[in-house]
Design a protein that fits this description.
Elements lengths: L3 H30 L11 H8 L1 H12 L17 H9 L2 H14 L10 H15 L3 H23 L1 H15 L1 H4 L14 H25 L2 H13 L1 H8 L10 H30 L6
C-alpha cells in the first residue's frame, strides 16, 4: 500500500532541491552577465548544463536521502513496440510550427503563406528535427525530474488533472529566473515580469500534458526528452520558415509566444482527455 506521508515528503524534498540547485547559479549568472541570452558563452556552458540537470540531480539526491531506490525510474528506452511514440515525439510540432507561421503572417497583414518556399521549409524542417534528437540529452535532466519523478508521484496522490495543472505551475515557476531576464517573452510587455511568469506556467501546463502522455505510453523519459528538445529547438524555426518575410519590428516576442501558446493549448486539451482515459483504466485517483 502506498505510504502517502512518505510520498509527500519525497515530493517536497525533490521540489526544494530542484529549485535550489537551479536558482542559485541562475541568480549568480543573471547578476554577472545581465541578459540571460549571454548564457551561450562557451565558458559557462558546463554551468548552464548543470542548471538544466537540476531536476535530475534532485531526483538522485531525493532517492538517496529517502532510501527510495530506483524502481519505476523510467530510465529504459523501451523502444520495442514504441517506435510510433518515438516518431511522434520528433514530429508532433509539425502542425504547431506551420500554424504558428501562418498566424504570424496574418497578424502582420500578409497573406497566409507569403514568402513561403517549399525547398527552404523542407531543408529547415529536416535540419531542426534531426538536430533535436541528439539534443534530447540536454532536456533529459528536466524530464527525468518532472515527468519521470514529480508527475508520477503527484498523479498517485492527487489524480491526473491536478497533476497536469500543479506540475505545470511548478515547472513554469522553475523557469522564473530566466523569465525575469526576458528569455521567454522579452521585457516589453504589460505586467513584466509577473505576466511572463504566469504565461510560462500556463505554457508548461499545456506542454506538460503531452510529455506526460508520452511517458505513460512508453514508460520512458527518453520520448519526452526528445519531444521537449523539439519544442525548444524546432517550433520557432519551422514557424519563421513559413513567416519568412516578417521583420523584427513587426511583432513582439510576447505576441509570437502567445500565438505559440494557442496551439499548445489545443495539444493540451487533446492529451488531457487521453490522460484521463488512461487514469480511469489504471484506477488512479480522479481528484485529491
Amino acid at each position: 500500500m502506498q505510504n502517502k506521508k512518505l510520498e509527500w515528503k519525497r515530493v517536497i524534498i525533490f521540489l526544494i532541491l530542484s529549485y535550489l540547485i537551479a536558482y542559485i547559479p541562475e541568480f549568480i549568472l543573471g547578476n554577472q552577465m545581465g541578459n540571460i541570452e549571454n548564457w551561450t558563452d562557451p565558458k559557462l556552458s558546463v554551468l548552464v548544463l548543470f542548471i538544466t540537470y537540476s531536476p535530475a540531480l534532485a531526483v538522485v539526491l531525493t532517492r538517496y536521502i529517502t532510501k527510495e531506490g530506483w524502481k519505476d525510474s523510467y530510465l529504459h528506452l523501451n523502444d520495442k513496440g514504441n517506435l510510433k511514440y518515438y516518431l511522434l515525439s520528433v514530429f508532433y510540432l509539425t502542425i504547431t510550427g506551420i500554424g504558428f507561421g501562418m498566424i504570424m503572417n496574418l497578424m502582420t497583414g500578409k497573406s497566409i503563406l507569403q514568402g513561403f518556399s517549399l525547398i527552404r521549409f523542407i531543408g529547415t524542417y529536416l535540419y531542426v528535427t534531426a538536430l533535436s534528437v541528439p539534443l534530447g540529452f540536454v532536456t533529459f535532466g528536466e524530464e527525468l525530474g518532472w515527468r519521470g519523478y514529480l508527475y508520477p508521484k503527484l498523479e498517485k496522490l492527487i489524480g491526473t488533472p491536478l497533476t497536469i495543472i500543479i506540475g505545470g505551475i511548478v515547472w513554469g515557476l522553475w523557469h522564473a529566473p530566466l523569465t525575469v531576464k526576458g528569455h521567454n517573452f522579452g521585457t516589453d510587455y504589460i505586467g513584466f515580469p509577473y505576466t511572463g511568469m504566469l504565461l510560462m506556467s500556463i505554457y508548461c501546463i499545456a506542454t506538460g500534458a503531452f510529455l506526460m502522455w508520452l511517458v505513460k505510453k512508453t514508460n520512458s523519459v527518453w520520448t519526452s526528452s526528445i519531444a521537449h528538445s523539439v519544442n525548444n529547438n524546432a517550433i520557432s524555426a519551422i514557424g519563421f520558415t513559413i513567416a519568412s518575410e516578417i521583420q523584427e519590428d513587426e511583432i513582439t516576442q510576447m505576441q509570437s509566444a502567445l500565438v505559440m501558446m494557442m496551439f499548445q493549448f489545443i495539444i493540451c486539451m487533446i492529451f488531457m482527455i487521453f490522460l484521463i482515459k488512461i487514469n480511469k483504466n489504471q484506477n488512479l485517483p480522479a481528484e485529491s
